[in-house]
Specification:
Shape: elongated
CATH topology of the largest domain: TIM Barrel
Radius of gyration: 28 Å
Number of helices: 21
Oligomer: single chain
Mean pLDDT: 95
Low-confidence stretches: none
Bound molecules: NADP nicotinamide-adenine-dinucleotide phosphate
Number of domains: 3
CATH architecture of the largest domain: Alpha-Beta Barrel
Helix content: 25-40%
CATH superfamily of the largest domain: Aldolase class I
Strand order of the largest sheet: 7-6-5-4-3-2-1-8
């Protein structure tokens, strides 16, 4: 069983008790008392906390040194004395490997902390000797500066200590790829272990730990009470990352992006997997910009089939890198991916073959058709003005041309509009002329990021330019009702929002990966729900 361990700090016994209650109510099944982050608690208070907790909820006692990212500012002798004093109220005692190695004398004292019984302490009718037997040693190592150079050697040395029941290593991930090494160590671990990549790139190690049978993963009570960088909350693990469903056979998916922090895709795909009762999990994969980073990530994924990755969404800035890499590595590319010149979906087959798809194209076409009355011929003969010339605009322009519409492109950087028009057979107009062009268009599609949060009062086009009532599609989905869309609604235009486009491309990804249909409007609800929590 991989424990979901709530890491708790705070001031005073009342606050600590409240936080423990909240953590258990949210689904934690073990508690780490971070004594270096806890103030105003006597040994009696620690005893009371232990007595109050159900027998099957283990307590880990940790006094983390400043050297390893904690806030213990006393000396090591004092720290060991505190471990001896509080040890009887814990089921596990976390001791840093560096401290453990310091001297035989330190190890002897830690042995005392592990064995000492408290006569006043007993729960569930157990006698003190039973409780002493249950107390175990966690040997830990934390490196905020990055991966320890001798990681594997140090890990094996810690695991080789007879007194050690659990090994915990945590280091700041240099990139998402460090997670793979953490999971590899877990997979081959000779002893129960925790392998954490800290920081923004380390989510994967914290979540997928359960698939590889980690001793536990550490979680924060909420976003304001993290005890380590990059710690996810209990709620995020449970709700957004399907913690309860993860097991050794869970298949993995992810979104490759930079930045990836605000991606809606994990919430949407995990909710869809949950609803369909599928043993699949969708993760964030932060991969730095550049073809080499993208390639390195996919090469590492493919060299570790045991990870269980079966597919990826690909977004800014990697859609073109994905197309190039799949071409170079002998992957397959669908006609839509070749047509748009970008891959936003990768499927990994049983034989590890990669197929690159583009689901943006069909989603953009469906949204524009819906805005223009629906049906396969809804776009034929339409005069569309496309605002923007980035990734979304490529799919929109390709779709317009393929369906017999004309595409006039205006972009802040005029040269990009000209290049896009030349590539797909549209026409370009200067950004400064967009209002005039809008007043002649019967479909306007905003593919620029104008109007996106936090600039919610901005619109790429003046309200006057849409007074003739064209159909309006906005790719921006945060906020859902952009300034452009509310101006258009006020003029009785038919509108389609960016969340519909997002949900349609996600529904097609789901179909590609699972072979099953999911209603895209159901995915809109999942995305809306996630946005309401941002
Ligand atoms: P992108 O490739 O980075 O392109 C951004 C576009 O916005 C460029 O044309 C850029 O013009 C323009 N732009 C940025 N700031 C501007 C400003 N202040 N004034 C005028 N134009 C500006 O991004 P993308 O992937 O195409 O995404 C565009 C928008 O669609 C974003 O808001 C994104 O969140 C949204 N989106 C929606 C979906 C969906 O499924 N609904 C999917 C992906 C993206 P320059 O060329 O001059 O820089």
């Amino acid at each position: 069983m991989t424990r979901l361990i709530a890491s708790i700090g705070g001031e005073g016994a009342g606050e600590i008790r409240n936080r423990i209650d909240a953590a258990l109510a949210r689904g934690a099944d073990a508690i780490e008392l971070r004594a270096d982050l806890i103030g105003g608690m006597s040994a009696d208070d620690y005893r009371a906390v232990r007595l109050q907790l159900p027998d099957d909820v283990p307590i880990i006692l940790t006094i983390r040194s400043a050297r390893e990212g904690g806030q213990w500012d006393g000396g090591d002798d004092e720290r060991v004395s505190r471990l001896i004093e509080l040890g009887p109220f814990a089921d596990y005692i976390d001791v840093e490997l560096e401290l453990w190695r310091r001297s035989a004398n330190v190890r002897q004292k830690i042995g005392l902390a592990l064995r000492r019984a408290d006569p006043a302490y007993g729960h569930g009718g157990e006698d003190a000797s039973t409780l002493v037997r249950r107390r175990k040693l966690i040997l830990s190592r934390h490196d905020a500066s990055g991966r320890p150079p001798t990681l594997q050697k140090e890990y094996l040395s810690a695991a080789g200590q007879n007194a050690c029941a659990v090994v915990k290593f945590a280091w700041t991930a240099r990139s998402v790829r460090d997670n793979f090494e953490a999971l590899e160590l877990l997979r081959e671990a000779p002893k129960p272990s925790v392998m954490i990549c800290m920081g923004a790139d380390g989510d994967m190690s914290r979540i997928v730990a359960k698939k590889f049978g980690a001793f536990g993963t550490f979680a924060a009570l909420d976003a304001t009470h993290q005890t380590a960088p990059g710690q996810l909350t209990i709620e995020e693990l449970k709700r957004d990352y399907r913690w309860d469903a993860i097991d050794p056979s869970t298949e993995l998916y992810g979104v490759i992006a930079d930045p990836v922090t605000h991606s809606l895709s994990p919430a949407v795909h995990n909710a869809a997997f949950e609803q369909a009762g599928m043993n699949r999990l969708y993760l964030k994969c932060p991969v730095r910009a550049g073809h080499e980073s993208f390639k390195a990530f996919l090469v590492e994924v493919r060299s570790r089939p045991w990870l269980g990755f079966r597919g990826f969404s690909v977004t800014i800035p990697h859609k073109e890198n994905a197309l190039r890499h799949l071409d170079e590595c002998g992957g397959r590319l669908t006609d839509d991916a070749r047509r748009v010149g970008a891959v936003n979906t990768i499927a990994i087959d049983d034989d590890a073959t990669l197929t690159g798809h583009n689901t943006d194209l069909a989603a953009a076409v469906a949204c524009m058709e819906a805005a223009c009355g629906g049906g396969v011929d809804a776009l034929r003969g339409r005069h569309a003005l496309v605002l923007g010339a980035g990734g979304v605009a490529r799919a929109v322009v390709a779709g317009l041309i393929d369906r017999g519409a004309s595409a006039l492109i205006a972009n802040r950087t005029d040269a990009r509009a000209t290049a896009l028009a030349a590539e797909f057979g549209g026409a370009a107009v200067a950004w400064a002329q967009r209002h005039r062009s809008a007043s002649r268009a019967d479909l306007i599609v905003n593919c620029s990021s104008v109007g996106m949060w936090p600039n919610v009062d901005q619109s790429p086009i003046s309200a006057d330019a849409i007074s003739h009532g064209p159909a309006v599609v906005d790719a921006v989905y945060r906020p859902r009702k952009t300034r452009l869309l509310s101006d258009a609604m006020a003029r009785r235009c038919v509108t389609v929002d960016g969340l519909a486009m997002f949900a349609r491309q996600a529904a097609e990804q789901f179909r590609i990966w699972t072979g099953q249909q999911v209603d895209w409007d159901q995915l809109v609800q999942f995305a809306d729900d996630r946005l309401s929590r941002v």
